[in-house]
Protein backbone atom coordinates (compact mmCIF):
# COMPACT_ATOMS: atom_id res chain seq x y z
CA UNK A 1 0.00 0.00 0.00
CA UNK A 2 1.77 3.09 -1.23
CA UNK A 3 1.99 5.96 1.19
CA UNK A 4 1.23 9.59 0.48
CA UNK A 5 3.04 10.64 -2.68
CA UNK A 6 4.20 14.12 -3.50
CA UNK A 7 5.93 15.49 -6.52
CA UNK A 8 8.17 17.03 -7.36
CA UNK A 9 10.44 16.44 -4.37
CA UNK A 10 12.45 19.53 -5.18
CA UNK A 11 11.30 22.55 -7.16
CA UNK A 12 13.32 25.62 -8.06
CA UNK A 13 11.54 28.71 -9.33
CA UNK A 14 12.57 32.29 -10.07
CA UNK A 15 10.66 35.14 -8.49
CA UNK A 16 7.41 35.78 -10.33
CA UNK A 17 7.00 32.25 -11.69
CA UNK A 18 4.30 29.79 -10.72
CA UNK A 19 4.81 26.70 -8.57
CA UNK A 20 2.55 23.66 -8.73
CA UNK A 21 2.86 21.00 -6.06
CA UNK A 22 1.05 17.69 -6.33
CA UNK A 23 -0.15 15.26 -3.70
CA UNK A 24 -1.72 11.82 -4.09
CA UNK A 25 -3.24 10.59 -0.83
CA UNK A 26 -2.91 7.07 0.51
CA UNK A 27 -5.29 4.53 -0.95
CA UNK A 28 -8.60 4.73 0.84
CA UNK A 29 -7.99 8.26 2.14
CA UNK A 30 -10.34 11.00 1.02
CA UNK A 31 -9.06 13.86 3.18
CA UNK A 32 -6.00 15.90 2.23
CA UNK A 33 -4.15 18.52 4.25
CA UNK A 34 -1.33 20.85 3.23
CA UNK A 35 1.26 22.15 5.68
CA UNK A 36 4.21 24.48 5.25
CA UNK A 37 7.48 24.22 7.14
CA UNK A 38 9.68 27.29 7.02
CA UNK A 39 13.37 26.89 7.90
CA UNK A 40 13.85 26.26 11.64
CA UNK A 41 10.10 26.44 12.27
CA UNK A 42 7.36 23.92 12.96
CA UNK A 43 4.76 22.82 10.45
CA UNK A 44 1.90 25.25 9.91
CA UNK A 45 -1.52 24.21 8.64
CA UNK A 46 -2.54 25.74 5.32
CA UNK A 47 -5.63 24.04 3.94
CA UNK A 48 -7.86 20.97 4.34
CA UNK A 49 -9.69 19.49 1.37
CA UNK A 50 -11.97 16.65 0.54
CA UNK A 51 -12.79 15.60 -3.01
CA UNK A 52 -13.97 18.70 -4.91
CA UNK A 53 -14.36 20.69 -1.67
CA UNK A 54 -12.21 23.07 0.31
CA UNK A 55 -13.22 22.50 3.92
CA UNK A 56 -10.87 24.87 5.76
CA UNK A 57 -8.40 27.27 4.15
CA UNK A 58 -7.84 29.40 7.23
CA UNK A 59 -4.06 28.87 7.11
CA UNK A 60 -3.64 29.82 3.49
CA UNK A 61 -2.33 33.27 2.51
CA UNK A 62 -5.16 35.24 0.94
CA UNK A 63 -3.28 36.06 -2.24
CA UNK A 64 -1.29 34.00 -4.74
CA UNK A 65 -2.06 30.64 -3.05
CA UNK A 66 -4.79 28.24 -4.09
CA UNK A 67 -5.52 24.55 -3.63
CA UNK A 68 -7.78 22.01 -5.23
CA UNK A 69 -8.59 18.32 -4.92
CA UNK A 70 -10.48 17.32 -8.06
CA UNK A 71 -12.71 14.30 -8.43
CA UNK A 72 -9.97 12.58 -10.41
CA UNK A 73 -6.26 13.07 -9.91
CA UNK A 74 -4.02 14.47 -7.22
CA UNK A 75 -4.51 17.47 -4.99
CA UNK A 76 -2.67 20.53 -6.28
CA UNK A 77 -1.24 23.42 -4.28
CA UNK A 78 -0.59 26.33 -6.59
CA UNK A 79 1.51 29.37 -5.79
CA UNK A 80 1.42 32.19 -8.30
CA UNK A 81 4.11 34.85 -8.68
CA UNK A 82 6.39 33.23 -6.14
CA UNK A 83 8.56 35.35 -3.86
CA UNK A 84 11.67 34.41 -1.86
CA UNK A 85 9.60 34.11 1.31
CA UNK A 86 7.69 31.20 -0.25
CA UNK A 87 10.83 29.05 -0.04
CA UNK A 88 9.92 26.22 2.34
CA UNK A 89 9.08 22.55 2.57
CA UNK A 90 5.45 21.87 1.70
CA UNK A 91 4.02 18.70 3.18
CA UNK A 92 0.83 16.97 2.27
CA UNK A 93 -0.97 14.61 4.64
CA UNK A 94 -3.99 12.40 4.20
CA UNK A 95 -6.45 10.64 6.47
CA UNK A 96 -9.55 8.52 6.28
CA UNK A 97 -11.51 11.26 8.00
CA UNK A 98 -14.17 10.15 10.43
CA UNK A 99 -13.08 6.52 10.05
CA UNK A 100 -9.59 7.34 11.30
CA UNK A 101 -8.16 10.76 11.95
CA UNK A 102 -4.45 9.89 11.98
CA UNK A 103 -2.78 12.00 9.35
CA UNK A 104 -0.01 10.35 7.36
CA UNK A 105 2.51 12.59 5.67
CA UNK A 106 4.15 12.56 2.29
CA UNK A 107 7.88 13.21 1.75
CA UNK A 108 7.30 16.88 1.04
CA UNK A 109 8.23 19.22 -1.78
CA UNK A 110 11.12 21.54 -1.06
CA UNK A 111 10.49 24.79 -2.93
CA UNK A 112 13.40 27.15 -3.49
CA UNK A 113 12.71 30.57 -4.97
CA UNK A 114 15.75 32.27 -6.48
CA UNK B 1 -4.84 31.38 19.39
CA UNK B 2 -4.13 27.64 19.58
CA UNK B 3 -0.65 26.92 20.87
CA UNK B 4 1.56 23.84 21.28
CA UNK B 5 4.88 24.13 23.07
CA UNK B 6 7.56 21.47 23.19
CA UNK B 7 10.53 21.21 25.49
CA UNK B 8 13.39 20.93 25.40
CA UNK B 9 14.01 22.32 21.90
CA UNK B 10 17.22 20.36 21.69
CA UNK B 11 18.61 17.38 23.60
CA UNK B 12 21.90 15.50 23.28
CA UNK B 13 22.37 12.22 25.15
CA UNK B 14 24.48 9.07 24.96
CA UNK B 15 23.34 5.81 23.49
CA UNK B 16 21.52 3.76 26.11
CA UNK B 17 20.14 6.75 28.00
CA UNK B 18 16.42 7.26 28.59
CA UNK B 19 14.87 10.52 27.41
CA UNK B 20 11.59 12.26 28.12
CA UNK B 21 10.19 14.82 25.69
CA UNK B 22 7.48 17.22 26.78
CA UNK B 23 4.54 18.77 25.01
CA UNK B 24 2.07 21.22 26.52
CA UNK B 25 -0.87 22.72 24.73
CA UNK B 26 -3.48 25.41 24.95
CA UNK B 27 -6.20 24.94 22.34
CA UNK B 28 -9.92 25.17 21.90
CA UNK B 29 -11.80 22.15 20.58
CA UNK B 30 -9.18 19.53 21.44
CA UNK B 31 -9.71 16.23 19.67
CA UNK B 32 -6.44 14.30 20.00
CA UNK B 33 -2.68 14.64 20.40
CA UNK B 34 -0.22 13.06 18.01
CA UNK B 35 3.52 12.42 18.07
CA UNK B 36 5.62 12.23 14.91
CA UNK B 37 9.28 11.49 14.22
CA UNK B 38 10.87 13.58 11.49
CA UNK B 39 14.20 12.64 10.02
CA UNK B 40 15.22 14.17 6.73
CA UNK B 41 11.87 13.75 5.07
CA UNK B 42 8.27 13.04 5.97
CA UNK B 43 7.08 13.13 9.57
CA UNK B 44 6.42 9.52 10.53
CA UNK B 45 3.39 8.82 12.71
CA UNK B 46 4.20 7.42 16.15
CA UNK B 47 1.18 7.74 18.46
CA UNK B 48 -2.29 9.21 18.66
CA UNK B 49 -3.65 9.89 22.15
CA UNK B 50 -7.21 10.79 22.95
CA UNK B 51 -7.77 9.65 26.55
CA UNK B 52 -6.01 10.77 29.71
CA UNK B 53 -3.83 8.38 31.64
CA UNK B 54 -3.68 5.56 29.11
CA UNK B 55 -0.13 4.80 28.08
CA UNK B 56 0.53 3.90 24.47
CA UNK B 57 3.60 1.80 23.86
CA UNK B 58 5.55 0.75 20.80
CA UNK B 59 8.84 -1.01 21.48
CA UNK B 60 11.12 1.38 23.35
CA UNK B 61 8.77 4.32 22.84
CA UNK B 62 5.82 5.18 25.02
CA UNK B 63 3.56 8.17 25.46
CA UNK B 64 0.85 9.37 27.79
CA UNK B 65 -1.61 12.25 27.82
CA UNK B 66 -2.88 14.34 30.74
CA UNK B 67 -5.97 16.27 29.61
CA UNK B 68 -6.39 17.97 32.96
CA UNK B 69 -2.91 19.49 32.98
CA UNK B 70 -2.83 19.79 29.18
CA UNK B 71 0.40 18.00 28.42
CA UNK B 72 1.87 14.83 27.03
CA UNK B 73 5.23 13.14 27.33
CA UNK B 74 7.10 10.88 24.95
CA UNK B 75 9.58 8.48 26.55
CA UNK B 76 12.33 6.65 24.72
CA UNK B 77 14.27 4.04 26.69
CA UNK B 78 17.65 2.49 25.81
CA UNK B 79 18.17 5.09 23.07
CA UNK B 80 20.02 4.19 19.87
CA UNK B 81 21.71 6.41 17.29
CA UNK B 82 18.80 5.68 14.95
CA UNK B 83 16.52 7.54 17.34
CA UNK B 84 18.24 10.80 16.39
CA UNK B 85 15.55 12.94 14.77
CA UNK B 86 13.19 15.83 15.37
CA UNK B 87 10.18 14.74 17.41
CA UNK B 88 7.03 16.68 16.65
CA UNK B 89 4.00 17.00 18.88
CA UNK B 90 0.74 18.02 17.22
CA UNK B 91 -2.74 18.63 18.57
CA UNK B 92 -5.73 17.92 16.40
CA UNK B 93 -8.36 20.64 16.78
CA UNK B 94 -11.78 21.03 15.28
CA UNK B 95 -12.15 24.31 13.46
CA UNK B 96 -15.22 26.48 13.15
CA UNK B 97 -15.78 25.02 9.70
CA UNK B 98 -16.03 21.57 11.25
CA UNK B 99 -12.68 20.49 9.90
CA UNK B 100 -9.87 18.90 11.83
CA UNK B 101 -6.40 20.31 11.53
CA UNK B 102 -3.10 19.76 13.31
CA UNK B 103 -1.39 22.47 15.31
CA UNK B 104 2.30 21.61 15.66
CA UNK B 105 4.88 22.45 18.27
CA UNK B 106 8.36 23.61 17.29
CA UNK B 107 9.79 20.13 17.67
CA UNK B 108 12.53 18.67 19.88
CA UNK B 109 15.79 17.92 18.09
CA UNK B 110 17.14 14.75 19.70
CA UNK B 111 20.73 13.67 19.09
CA UNK B 112 22.00 10.33 20.32
CA UNK B 113 25.77 10.06 20.50
CA UNK B 114 27.41 6.63 20.33
Description:
The complex is a heterodimer of chains A (114) and B (114). With 114 residues, chain A is mainly beta. Chain A contains no helices and eleven strands. In chain A, strands 2, 4, 5, 6, 9, 10 and 11 form a seven-stranded mixed β-sheet that branches. In chain A, strands 1-3-8-7 form a four-stranded antiparallel β-sheet, with no helix packed on it. In chain A, a hairpin with an 8-residue loop joins strand 9 (88-95) and strand 10. Chain A starts with a strand and ends with a strand. The mean pLDDT of chain A is 91. With 114 residues, chain B is mainly β. Chain B is 0% helix and 61% strand. Chain B is built from no helices and eleven strands. In chain B, the strands form two sheets. In chain B, strands 2, 4, 5, 9, 10 and 11 form a six-stranded mixed β-sheet that branches. In chain B, strands 1-3-8-7-6 form a five-stranded antiparallel β-sheet, with no helix packed on it. In chain B, a hairpin with a 4-residue loop joins strand 7 (61-66) and strand 8 (71-76). The N and C termini of chain B lie far apart (41 Å). The relative contact order of chain B is 0.33.
Spell out the blueprint of helices and strands.
The complex is a heterodimer of chains A (114) and B (114).
Chain A: E1 5-7, E2 10-13, E3 19-24, E4 31-37, E5 43-50, E6 53-56, E7 65-68, E8 75-79, E9 88-95, E10 104-105, E11 109-113
Parallel strand pairs in A: 2-11
Antiparallel strand pairs in A: 1-3, 3-8, 4-5, 4-9, 5-6, 7-8, 9-10, 9-11
Chain B: E1 3-7, E2 10-14, E3 19-26, E4 30-38, E5 43-49, E6 56-58, E7 61-66, E8 71-76, E9 85-94, E10 100-104, E11 108-113
Parallel strand pairs in B: 2-11
Antiparallel strand pairs in B: 1-3, 3-8, 4-5, 4-9, 6-7, 7-8, 9-10, 9-11
Amino acid sequence: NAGVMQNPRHLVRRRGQEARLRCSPMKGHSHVYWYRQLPEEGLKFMVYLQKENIIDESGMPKERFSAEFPKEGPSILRIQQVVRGDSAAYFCASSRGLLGNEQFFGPGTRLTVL
Amino acid sequence: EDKVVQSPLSLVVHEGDTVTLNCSYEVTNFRSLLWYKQEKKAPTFLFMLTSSGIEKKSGRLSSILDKKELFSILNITATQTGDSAIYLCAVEVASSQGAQKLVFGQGTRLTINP
